Amino acid sequence: MGTAQQQDRHVGKKRLLSLLTAAAVTFAASVAFVTGAGPAAADPVEECTATKGAIVAVDFGPFGGDVVRGCDTTPTTGYELLHEGGFTTEGTQHDGDGFICRIGTVSFNSGTQYPTPATEDCVLTPQATAYWSYWIASPGQDTWSYSPLGAMSRKPQAGDVDAWVFGGTDVGGSTGRPTFTPDEVRAGGGATPGPTGNPTGGP
Known about the structure:
This protein has 203 residues and is an alpha+beta fold. It folds into two domains: 1-37; 45-200, Ferric Hydroxamate Uptake Protein, Chain A, domain 1, CATH 2.170.130. Helices cover 22% and strands 20% of the residues. It contains three helices and nine strands. The strands form three sheets. A five-stranded mixed β-sheet has the order 2-1-7-5-6, with helices on one face. A hairpin with a 7-residue loop joins strand 1 and strand 2 (67-72). It is globular and about 40 Å long. It starts with a helix and ends with a strand. Mean pLDDT is 80; it is low at 3-14, 16-38 and 195-203. This is Peptidase.
């Protein structure tokens, strides 16, 4: 075999090795992306205080669950607070992720998101009689206000409490308020109410 042929074969082997290495790296990155797509690990609720972080509470009562709390010590938006608090969400096909159509958590029914597709297809914006309404309370407030902003636009402050309740309300938020108070779920508030109104421990 001539020197030129040996060089060509050597170059070919190096090129093949480079392609195989690149493919392996791409596959590993893809696996890491897929396996890392789950809910974020929430900060322990006790790490959120009146001057640090914010609490989010989701009422799974309409689906047979309890009120589940989450904490994010450095939330930048209400949407991030919900996700960093340990919850997963799904938006609608019409409005995208900004309109939260389903919410789930590993703390309830193995992470199943509600309402399920059998009840709500999340294609269009859900009716005002059956959707996740968004409520907020500032530090020192023990009454809920219907959030004038969507979760992606709201900027939680230290000591804030957010709540998500499934059901119906009007644009002004005069109906459909959470059945629990901000003090019951805020940092240091202790137990949270279950679907029957009896207190249950936080996550």
